[in-house]
Amino acid sequence: MRERWFGATGRKVPEIALEGTIDLEGVLVLDDAADLAAIHEAHRAGRPVVVRASSAEQVHAALSLGAVSDASLLDLDLGEMTYG
Fold first, then answer.
1. Neighbouring-strand partners of residue 5
2. What is the 8-class DSSP label of residue 10?
């Protein structure tokens, strides 16, 4: 499973994670990836951002940001979805 840095926390987390499997204290948690201003501000501050997703399309849209809430989405081939 691919990992990514979790804001400025100094730790890496799975690129796609099941909700409830990582500590979200101090994290900006969003229900969708539409609030780009809040996301960019959090990134500038080094604050981790997690976007909840419940479909393959939502995971694809939120890939640059965070976790998913349905275990069936953990096996998505995001490279294939992005590049074909």
1. 12
2. S
Contacts of 82 (CB under 8 A, 6+ apart): 60, 63
What is residue 29's predicted lDDT score, i.e. its pLDDT? 92
Distance CA 36, CA 34 (A): 6
pLDDT (tens digit per residue) in 16-62: 888 899 899 999 999 888 887 888 888 889 898 888 888 888 887 77
Between CA 63 and CA 34 the distance in angstroms is 13
**Whether this model's pTM surpasses 0.85:** no
Evaluate whether 67 touches 51 at the Cβ level (below 8 Å). Answer: yes
Give the DSSP per-residue string, 20-59. TSS--TT-EEESSS--HHHHHHHHHHT--EEE---SHHHH
Question: Can you read off the two tokens belonging to residue 34?
Answer: 């539409």
